[in-house]
Amino acid sequence: MLIRKATKEETDYIQSIGSQVQQEATMGYVNETNKITDYDLNAPYQGIYYVLTHQQRLQGWVLLGETRGPYTNDYSGVILELYVLPQFRKYGAGRMLMEFALDHFKHRGFNRVQLNVFAGNPARRLYEKLGFREVASLMETKI
Q: Is pLDDT at 41 greater than 90 in this prediction?
């Protein structure tokens, strides 16, 4: 298995299924009527896609960026998106991508990595196993 920067063709494919990925990752909170675009996700963080392939077949990806914390003013690595294609789940691909991301940020000198995860997303268990802890909660109500 190989993790590397995504090619233009791979990035185009990833972005072409962005609505599906967002809907799944947000547990249905984001849908066709309120979706955000990949530009919105990439631009503020200068995100770069890294893909996991096996025998030249795309299995999943992670979108990595950088941000400055609003409360600490420290720079942090940020995992903007992690996605494993359904047929490759339960084989450790998500863990491999996450470990790659953490190593990537460590080598770039960051001492903190952040991500957002929606309530009910099963990936949360993986994040917790890798040491991620909740530091804030976004709450809302409809009015």
A: no
Burial 55-74 (b: 16+ CB within 10 A, else e): eeebbbbbbbbbbeeeeeee
The whole-angstrom separation of Cα 36 and Cα 22 is 8
Q: Which two tokens stand for residue 131?
A: 């040491």
pLDDT at residue 136, as a whole number: 87
DSSP 56: T
Q: Which long-range contacts (CB under 8 A, 24 or more apart) does 64-70 make?
A: 64/101, 64/104, 64/105, 66/110, 67/114, 69/112, 69/114
pLDDT tens-digit map of 118-142: 988 999 999 999 999 998 888 889 8
Please name the residue that has the structure tokens 């494919």.
Answer: 13
Q: Which domains does the chain have, with CATH numbers?
A: 2-129 (3.40.630.30)
Which parts of 17-136 fold into alpha helices (H)? 18-25, 38-42, 93-107, 123-129
Largest CA distance in the chain: 51
